[in-house]
Amino acid sequence: MHVTRVELDNIKAYEREAFDFQRGTTAIVGPNGAGKTTILEAVAWALFDVLDYSKEDFLRRGAKKGSVRVTFESDADGRSYTVYRDTGNGYYIHDPGLGAKVAEKKHDVSAMLRQLLGIEPGTDVAALFKSAIGVPQGTLTADFLKPASQRKAAFDRLLKVEEYREGADRLLRVERLIGERTADVRERIGQAQGQLASYDRLVAELEETAARAAGLEETVETLRREAEDRAQAVAALDSAERRVADARARVERATVERDAADRRARELRGELEAARRAEERQRATAADYAAHTSALELIGALELERGERDRTAALAHEAERLSAAAERDVRRIEDALERAARARNALAELEPEINAQEELERER
Fold first, then answer.
1. Each residue of 182-194: pLDDT tens digit?
2. What letters, b where the CB count within 10 A reaches 16 and e where it falls short, cover 292-309?
3. Mind listing the pLDDT tens digit for each residue in 191-213?
4. Are the beta carbons of 115 and 132 closer than 8 angstroms?
């Protein structure tokens, strides 16, 4: 990691200031109280979440809010990042290359900073900063002057001795597991050697089994051919069965058609018999028909005669009307009525013969 720039805004003695750092060794000099330690404290607070006093005391006197921006180059990917933190709740990592925030809130920022700074999981970040990175003035050799037990605790925490001890214990368990697996493999090797001793017997059994398998293959081939022949026979039987079914269907249709033909023949014979009877009846009524025809001719003649008579009577009555009084007109009318009645009676007498003749005509 290489810190390239630190910007302070309303932090302790600085109202607004920025410091740029080049690669190599950098010395910050100045009189007491000038703010040299403040720069290191700003880096510790932004990157390692270390501040030995409250944020209010870190804030410049009279200011309501202060902020720190630390820009650094990460050894993890070689890119530059800017960490912003203020005395309120603002805390995020900005990627200048992307022009966007890549982490916000304390939890996410701390996790990403561990990755960018190359700090292994489980490392006490605060102890690492105080003991190896930002050693307070005059305390560089303080840990070395402590008693052995305290010195051991400090360096064990810094060097992660306990984690290495836990790793050694886990490796020991792995070693025991490997030993168990090795014993198991040796046992399996012994079993394999025993099986290898009976290899010749197994080879003989294999040859015998192969011979039996060849014989079984021949048997299977024979059975397969028989199955094919039987399948062909079954197919032939199925075809014959279908032909028989078709023949039965044709026979049934022929039977139905024969029955229909028989019924039609009976109907035609009935019609023929009726025609013969009608012909006989026509022959029997031929004389009656001739009489009927003569009667019709007679009726026509009578009708003509009646017409002539009526016209003659009309002329007579007209002459009488011209020459007679109303009494003769009445008599004429009465005479006409009487004649009409007689004609109606005559027609009534002929009507049975006309009806009979028409019935004969219809039967013929």
1. 888 888 887 777 7
2. beeeeeeeeeeeeeeeee
3. 777 766 677 777 777 788 888 88
4. no
In tens, the pLDDT along 111-158 reads 999 889 888 777 777 777 776 565 555 444 555 556 776 666 665 665
Alpha helices in 198-285 (DSSP H): 199-284
Neighbours of 66 (CB within 10 A): 22
Write the CB contacts of 124 (distance below 8 Å, at least 6 apart in sequence): 157, 158
Alpha-carbon gap, residue 316 to 314, rounded angstroms: 5
DSSP letter, residue 59: B
Q: How far apart are CA 139 and CA 33, in angstroms?
A: 19
**What amino acid occupies position 238?**
D
Q: How much is the pTM?
A: 0.41
The helix (H) or strand (E) run that includes residue 352 is helix 326-363
Instruction: Tell me the per-residue pLDDT of 93-115, one tens digit each, with 9 for 90 and over.
Output: 999 999 999 999 999 999 999 88
